[in-house]
Amino acid sequence: MNAIILLLVGLGAMALGYVFYSKFIAEKIYRLQADYPTPAHTLRDDVDYVPTNRFVLWGHHFTSVAGAAPIVGPAIAVIWGWAPAFLWVTLGTVFFAGVHDFGALWASVRNKGKSMGMLSGSYIGRRGRNLFLVVIFLLLLMVNAAFAVVIANLLVSTPTSVIPVWGAILVALVIGQLIYRWKVGLLWPSIGGVIVLYALILIGNSYPLVLPDSVFGMSAKSAWIVLLFLYAGIASLLPVWVLLQPRDYINGLQLFVGLGILYAAVLLASPTIVAPAFNDSVPDGTPGIVPLLFVTIACGAISGFHGMVASGTTSKQLDKETDARFVGYFGAVGEGMLSLAAIICCTAGFATLVDWQAVYAQFGAGGVTAFVNGGDVLLMDGLGMPEQLGSTMLATMAILFAATTMDTGLRLQRFVVQEAAELAGFKVGTFLGTVVALAVCMALAFGAGGDGAGGMVIWPLFGTTNQLLAALTLAVISVILIRKGRNPLFTLVPLVFLLLMSLYALIVQLGTFLEQENWLLLAMDVVILVAALWVSFEAFLAMRKGRDAAAAEDGTLDGERG
């Protein structure tokens, strides 16, 4: 099959979802109000709570959630065939991810910018809240520790990406000053920023930077991991307008330009998808497609981490409640578009089926490498781009989005530390909270692996925990809707599906870890499984109480009517 068909059908479905389905959800289910005072105004402190232009905020939200996972997940999942991956990414984006991300943002805005963990206490109960925070903390630990390893591996394997990756920080700092301090309009900083970013890619392609084999006694990969954690710690302490917002915004523009270039290459090259639609001869050791497909492709279809970002940082910057549809739902669409590109690169970027099978000879093969190499081929065939330049551009894209997810993730983990301390009866400041978050992540990365590779130890549980957290977030949103007397069907359907798939996957992985005698993952699996079942039970009880109380209430929530 020609890849153009896949491209047009996928983009068309997501566009229709945003134009029609998100509008229905905004007007009939969440019922957005343009005059509702958002936390960015009522709690403004110009550090975390900052009213923000919706396009800038969309850039922050989208690039914070668009890390390595929407590339890695689909790039691994096509081993079962391109059709299951394509269907889950497309339908999951429209009916699951968009409603989830949008809903988490709306619920947080309606509750003074509180995170989903704290909201679970208000709407599910104290026990549910405590267990919810455990799941959130473990997920953020996985994101921060594992993404540092993924980025470090790419910086080592693609040294031409080093200059554009670190140069993007300087570009973001300048844009932040231009927009917020000198009040320059958005247009010219945007155009100039994208031009400089791509100029840095050209420079980096000509001047690769390679760290020495030993840096203060550490390997090159370990040194990159330390530098990445130091950067993330500093970035999480700065006011969001200084670095986080402008970095995410300009990266969002860069991604859309990059996706446009990649999609143009597909249209011009008109490549054939060589991978099978349904792979009947998967390699030995490949797990069953159900439930693993739905947790392997996490962020590309729906992700609990998105709810953490939406309620952790994005809700504190939303200028108008009606902006939530564009920022939340369209942010999920952007993620789906990135996953669609990954599927095409990893199935049409090979000359023959034999070449594809050589890469996908075992489960877990492919990943970012397949995306970079396959996309490089498409760029050469469609646009005549030099071989190394395409690899540099795609590797830079992958690193930038993983890095923005990492610095946002560390800020969110600091929030969780502070919230947990508050529940315990004492106060933890911003600096101390950041130090604690950094210490835990680095302890995992270097304690479980001498070269920093320990961050990947818990990667097998990442996708499952991510989807499970999305289900629990949908449970909180459903309770809110039920209390307000609104139809919860549009959140309950994805909630039930995700909960079943995630619990099924946890049980399957439990047997695998036991067989491997991997006691760390076994213990974490048990903790997550018990917490998920307990929170689900508490959520079910909260829904019943909310349904019974809805008839006696006037549909108000936090001062809202209707």
Strands, helices and their partners?
Blueprint: H1 3-29, H2 39-42, H3 54-65, H4 69-77, H5 82-109, H6 116-123, H7 126-157, H8 162-181, H9 187-206, H10 220-237, H11 244-269, H12 289-296, H13 304-312, H14 323-348, H15 353-359, H16 367-383, H17 387-424, H18 430-447, H19 462-483, H20 489-516, H21 519-550
Helix pairs in contact: 1-5, 1-14, 3-11, 3-14, 4-14, 4-16, 5-13, 5-14, 5-19, 6-7, 6-19, 7-10, 7-17, 7-18, 7-19, 7-21, 8-9, 8-11, 9-11, 9-17, 10-17, 10-18, 11-14, 11-16, 11-17, 12-20, 13-19, 14-16, 16-17, 17-18, 19-20, 19-21, 20-21
Pfam family, one: CstA
Membrane topology: Multi-pass membrane protein
Keywords: Cell membrane, Membrane, Transmembrane, Transmembrane helix
